[in-house]
Amino acid sequence: MTSALHTDPAPAPAPEASPDTVLRVRDLTVSFGGRGRSVTAVRGLSLDLARGEVLGLVGESGSGKSTVGLAAMGLHDAARTTVGGSVTVGGTEVVGAPDSAVRALRGARIAMVFQDALAALSPFHSVLEQLAEAYRLHHRAAGRAEARERARAMLDRVGIPAARARDYPHQFSGGMRQRVMIAIALVNSPDVLIADEPTTALDARVQRQVLALLAELREESGTAVLLITHDVGVVAATCDRMLVMRGGEAVEQGPTEKLLHHATHPYTRALIGAAPTLDTVPGTRLPTVDDPEPAAGTGPVAVPEGAAGAGAGTAAARRPAAGPGSAGTAPGREAAAARAGRRGPLASGGGSAADPGSAGTAPGQAAVPGRRGPLTGGGGPVAEPAGAVLAEVADLHVSFGGRRSLLGRRAEPVRAVRGVSLRVGTGETLGLVGESGSGKSTTARVLAGLQRPTSGSVRFDGRDIARAAVDTRLRRALSRDVQLVFQDPYASLNPRRTVEESVTLPLRVHTDLDAAARRDRAVELLEQVGLSADQLGRYPHEFSGGQRQRVGIARALALRPRLIIADEPVSALDVSVQAQVLNLLMDLRDELGLSLLFVSHDLAVVRHFCDRVAVMRAGTVVESGPRDEVFDDPKAAYTRELLAAAL
Amino acid sequence: MTGYVLRRALQAAAVLLAITAAAFGLFYAAPSDPALIACGPKCDTGQVEAVRHSMGLDQPLATQYADYLRGLVAGRTISDVDGTPIDCAAPCLGYSYTLHQPVLDAIGDRFPVTLSLAGGALAVIVVLGVGVGFAAALRRGTATDRLLSGFTLVGASVQIYFLGYALQYLLVYTTDLFPVPGYAPFGDGPGAWAAGLLLPWLVLGFVNAAVFARLARSQMLETMHEGYVRTARGKGMSALHAHLKYTGRGAAAPLVQLLGLEAGALFGGAFITETVFGLGGVGKLAVDAVVQNDLPTVVGTVLLAAFFVVLFVALADLVVAWLDPRVRLA
């Protein structure tokens, strides 16, 4: 993995109270809420950031990593937050300092870049105005003209053409907006830049560009960067050192290379190994962290080494011919280890930790023998993709808009999908991969019968379903066989329904099972997805994100559908939870012989999970084929570009 | 932009046309005979028929409606009860046989009162409502917030006819703190004009400001945590400055929309306030016309009120678009 953020050798970690330390955090404790109930988000965290250094602050959601960034800026709401310990920026204390003193630091000595640039930029002012304002706040003597001059120069530096300086944030692309955000943060040449998930919302290629820009600017100005992220890949590519946080505490810190290869803490290893990379052996079980919700004052997390035996072995062995090109895939750890030898640092934790969470599915599987029969018609684990076609679209076009308004001109329709042809075979998993706006979700919605195609044919099991979106009866019939798993497990479950109600709703609609039979089926389903029967009466808010996604999967399975369409089913989840859910989906697919359309922007996940892959760009399929063909020998330049950009 | 204004003007015209049609229908739906009312109680049947004919009420409905619309656009000549022609210039809203003057003149006589009352009350609404709402939001959870929120609750729940009479009694007749309410034309001196309207402004403003204050507070609280406010503070801006410049702007759109509706309603007349303070405005004219079955005046005042609502709602949309460049005028 090459280092994009710096070319110099990494500076050694700063010693205590070195004059070179630009940001010094000691025993930082942050808790929210007063009056009895308070939540401690950060507990006794200490770190040093030396001039020009890049420190990666890594953790999953709820680890407190963003809270550290805000505390360093002194941006917490004083009325609701208790901040203890010490944060000094270039020797000036932030914690407990009067607002005027901290204000002099903010934007001048320490600045911040946020994840969602669209939300973080004012929608009411042009980017030039916003940049000029940042300059003038710390250069009181400067006139408007001077500030604008300065702002234009900075915009130019981050690659925003002068002609667009007076445009508003919503007129820019995501990458451009983040460039503006970076320009605002760096216009006063601060000593410290806090970048909170600066590229998380961006497509991989844009992420590369933005990280490269950050690296250039950092080298020019010597600004130290605290990079807050959940993505170990980003850290590996950009940071000198990394600090892993969990449950508000530091788990481990040290040089990036050392932690990536020889982490001492099992949580660090699990975090590093949990996300599949382009070098992971496809279809293998992903290592997960044993307990998803760390208890307060977490001790070392037990991740039994070498316990991968049964799980990983069967997972890999179950699909001996998972796609024509992958015949060489050897099961088990040896293959993982063999490949690990010739791949990048990210893979060092790969393929070894067991997942007690999803191990709970094993008894469930055993308890429901013979399930595969009625569903797949006795088919083997994988049908030839070229064989029985379950669902297909041919020359699909979908356009939006273009309505004529009163006195208005006809707006140009947005052509989201332009001539896509795809097939999903029985028992096959087709990965639909592309950047945002590529039309992949629209294509999936057409296959789900939720979107009417503008033209082209859509068939499920030989039947024309193009009108399903406008024909209630057809849609209803289709939904018996085609079910969906959604991206956001928080939004896709009704908060006022118990898990039982959510899971059994499809049964109520489509079957005449009585309440007892529905409940039995719900119990069976929950056990299948690794939850337990006593959770039936609970509401979604009582579950973690990963558990909710399991509920969503159980609901999708309730009718024993023949095709499951999963649109970014793991991209809203933390990596360790993502690993659990991917493991679960692989188990279920194996056990039930499911056919899946798996939509994702994440190449590594698609490569890990799918038999065949179609790469979409701007509404067309630029390349499709068996997984190994597409990934090992990409034909389209765009595919190669995407692969090169993946961290 | 020009296209947008044109489209909005056409939409407004369509709305007003629909309202004239609905109001015009009143003539026939109402259980009263305009000819009989115009003629007076002493008329015999023959006289009423003569009046009916001279008023054009024996014409088909469509003809009468067309006449009315033509009068609105180009003016027309109306016959009085005795057949004398009355010239009614555009925009002719008809002739009131009760007031013995064209409806437009009747409205015109009273409109300065309504304009003065509504304008002052709107100023009070904006200053008090937005000010209280913002102050409460900035100090949310404190005693100040609770006090201000309680204050707005009083405003929202109290009735003008109670508050108006009570304050008049306490502040004018008992203690002499406020001048006697009444309308003196602005042209006769701004001092007397403002003095006479001070209490009505405050009462009408306070009661309507309550809704604003509550909306302003909740909008502020919602917007305060927007990313761009945090960014502004991250640049080194003080919290107050950031809230004034960014939170205020972000919270403004629904307030402007509501203000547009409110302004439209107030310019159409404020009957209760006018009655309480003895002001002869358009509101009182409208209610009197209803009571006296003076249908031309009823239709005229309804149309006027609708016109102001349509006008101010359209203006509010323009202001919102100006405040937020993301709003596409379409």
TrEMBL record, chain A:
Residues 278-381 are annotated as: Disordered. One of its GO terms (biological process) is peptide transport. Keywords: ATP-binding, Nucleotide-binding, Transport. Residues 23-272, 391-643 form the ABC transporter domain. GO terms for molecular function: ATP binding; ATP hydrolysis activity. InterPro entries: AAA+_ATPase (IPR003593), ABC_transp_ATP-bind (IPR050319), ABC_transporter-like_ATP-bd (IPR003439), ABC_transporter-like_CS (IPR017871), Oligopep_ABC_C (IPR013563), P-loop_NTPase (IPR027417). Pfam families: ABC_tran (PF00005), oligo_HPY (PF08352). Residues 294-346, 353-374 have a biased composition (Low complexity). Belongs to the ABC transporter superfamily. This is Peptide/nickel transport system ATP-binding protein. It comes from Streptomyces eurocidicus (Streptoverticillium eurocidicus).
From TrEMBL, chain B:
It holds the Pfam family BPD_transp_1_N. Gene3D superfamilies: MetI-like (1.10.3720.10). Keywords: Cell membrane, Membrane, Signal, Transmembrane, Transmembrane helix, Transport. The chain crosses the membrane at residues 117-138, 150-172, 192-215, 255-279, 299-323. GO terms for cellular component: plasma membrane. It is found in: Cell membrane. InterPro entries: BPD_transp_1_N, MetI-like, MetI-like_sf. It is a multi-pass membrane protein. Residues 1-29 form the signal peptide. Belongs to the binding-protein-dependent transport system permease family. This is ABC transporter permease. It comes from Streptomyces eurocidicus (Streptoverticillium eurocidicus).
